[in-house]
Amino acid sequence: MIYAPKGVEDILPPRAELYSQIEREAGNFFSLYGYHQIRIPTFEKTELFLRSVGEETDVGKQMYTFKDKGGRSLSLRPEGTAGVVRAYIEHKIYGKEKVWKVWYAEPMFRYERPQAGRLREFYQIGVEYFGEENPWVDVEIIEMAYLFLSKLEMDNIEVQINSIGCKQCRAGYIRQLKIYLKENLSSLCGTCQRRFYSNPLRVLDCKNKTCRAVLQKAPSIEDFLCSSCKQHFDTVKEGLSRLKIPFTVNSHLVRGLDYYTRTIFEFKSFYLGSQDTVCAGGRYDDLIEELGGPSTPAMGFAIGLERLLLTLEKMGRKPSVPSLPCIFVVTLGKSCIEKGVQIARILRSQSILVKVNFTEKGLSAQLKQAGKEGFLWVLIVGENELKNKSYVLKNMKSGNQQYINEKDIENISDILRGDT
Ligand SMILES: [Zn+2]
Ligand SMILES: [Zn+2]
């Protein structure tokens, strides 16, 4: 027996249908804001991720990287933004469209320690918005995520926002932060002591108690924002308030990716334990230029589908199975199966869910099975019916029976409607 590799999961029905439903609902909702779907490659050149996500970040270190048979270093995408940005530059979209808005729903891959809501292959629904710097773009994107999650009846969601400034003002902040952290370096956990050198901003979101205590007195980035970053952030906060989107400013909020600038945000669910972030994103105004495109402001977010579903399932949501009219075609004997299959085709062309019996079971056993499987009608195809070209249609609920001529099968929907 060969089992699935550690950290990946089969998504069996009906759960898989819930995934598709949410993805469809997301796409429909985002399209109201002018987003179009994009499909990006599952793997890219490793270099793309190292230059965007960052080599020293957790995500950068968790990549599935391999050499293909031509000796090229490739990586499975650990997130969606880098691939979308590469596509934007490669296809010179900037020369054709001033503003470009896309959404995707794709699996991502990270070599993590598997736990509830965190797998090595996981699904994200994401959006990316290119071409506008206006803080109202930030407001609209956060609003869209908020309203989408509200539409799914997710309650108990907290929106946290922060601004990590632009390259210039962030550098000043990091300098001060490092001075402060250096004085307290011995009190920090091992991870943070390493991060102090590789990525000091990440120390801010450490969950360790003693680190948290140290961070209470750490300088706050809000005090270091340059005037245009401050103005941008003020307008975002003002806009969210005006649109009545509840949020808190968390000055310790940072994201585990190198490319963010200015506004970043996370949606946290109280239904989840430590894996509490269901949606996260932010601005990345420098990334397109850093990857070789023209300077273009941009912003996006991604929703983790596993965590979203965990929350929805904890809230009791089940996939809504579309209720098609359904007919079980009873076939009595080998010679009747072919006719049963032909009839089934005509029934399905009327959008009716049909199951044909291929077993040697007798009439009563088949009726019992049809009832157990929840079929509302059975259509009986036996030797006599074949001869007379007339079939018994039985309503399993009421017990009503009627004969249906071969010709009437083409319009059986009308008959079924009168028999529910
Ligand atoms: Zn700035
Ligand atoms: Zn720490």
Give a brief description.
The chain is of the alpha+beta class and 420 residues long. Helices cover 37% and strands 22% of the residues.
Notes on the protein architecture:
This protein is α+β, with helices and mostly antiparallel strands and 420 residues long. It has two domains: 15-166 and 226-314, Bira Bifunctional Protein, Domain 2 (BirA Bifunctional Protein, domain 2, 2-Layer Sandwich); 326-417, Rossmann fold (3-Layer(aba) Sandwich), CATH 3.40.50.800. The protein contains 15 helices and 16 strands. It has helices at 15-31, 46-52, 58-61, 81-90, 135-151, 167-183, 190-198, 209-215, 227-242, 287-290, 305-314, 334-348, 363-372, 383-388, 412-417; strands spanning 36-37, 43-45, 65-67, 73-76, 100-109, 121-130, 157-163, 247-249, 261-269, 277-283, 298-304, 326-331, 353-356, 377-381, 390-395, 401-405. The strands form three sheets. An eight-stranded mixed beta sheet has the order 1-5-6-11-10-9-7-8. A hairpin with a 5-residue loop joins strand 15 and strand 16 (401-405). The longest helix has 17 residues, at 15-31. It is elongated and about 90 Å long. The two termini are 47 Å apart. Bound molecules: zinc ion (2 copies). The site of one zinc ion (ZN) has 7 residues, from helix 7.
